[in-house]
Amino acid sequence: MYDVLANLKLVESSRICLHESHENRRLHKTRQIIEEEGILRHPPLAIHMQNGQYLIIDGAHRTFALQALGCKHIPLQVVEHEDFHLDMWDHIVPVAAWLQSVEQDSVFRWETERLRETPVAEIKIGDKERFYLYPNENRQDDEWRMTLWRQLVDSYNYSHQVHRLPTGMLECPETGAALIRFPPISLEELERIVSEGHVLPAGVTRFEIDGRLLNLCIPISLLKQEQIELEQWERLVKKWRETLRLYSKPVYMCDA
């Protein structure tokens, strides 16, 4: 049987990097829950990069919250590249003033036809209108691309509720809504963007991963230690190994 717990690592906080920014409201809620419960239920997922750093691919808000709470070590479920699939989220947002502000923003150019160059995003309004958003400035570097992505997402993310759907699940948003679709990026591109010191806006990348470790209930007091008490950690791993269950059928869980 595959030993998933062998991939659970306690990593120094300084060796962890993130590929996306955070949403303030979600971070506040996540930190509050962890602080009140005194435990981390679900470890973030990460890959081990060539430079020795660990890149968080799922669990950015948990990681930010743990760092803000003074945790010196972060438990990570480290996965291999073949264990996950990188995709993107489509954003469904009400049509409102944000759309007009983007239309009037001089950094963007709107086209009704897709050009050879990769667009910043594709925007569909209702079932009839489709636009492609391109940069007005002729730059293709990662820093500029991430700046435009963040500028677009920030235009609606703080003032409207954003519904996220897997790319392609919905082709035509309902009347009064806009669908924003971002071009896909590869894992190699993502690692390069992070190594250059840039981050994506929150909630754009989507990782499909099999075999997540859930409900470990790791004490925050342990993670705040400068030097981890290995005996305590080993006792926890032993307990998890004895109580671990694999559910092979779909499970529905509410994020309260």
From TrEMBL:
UniProt entry tagged with the keyword Transferase: yes
Keywords assigned by UniProt, alphabetized: ATP-binding, Kinase, Nucleotide-binding, Transferase
Domain of life: Bacteria
Pfam families: ParB_N
One annotated GO molecular function: kinase activity
InterPro entries: ParB/Sulfiredoxin_sf, ParB_N, SbnI-like, SbnI-like_N, SerK/SbnI_C
Gene3D superfamilies cross-referenced by the UniProt entry: Conserved hypothetical protein from pyrococcus furiosus pfu- 392566-001, domain 2, Conserved hypothetical protein from pyrococcus furiosus pfu- 392566-001, ParB domain
ParB-like N-terminal domain: residues covered: 9-92
Protein name: Transcriptional regulator
Species for this entry: Brevibacillus brevis (Bacillus brevis)
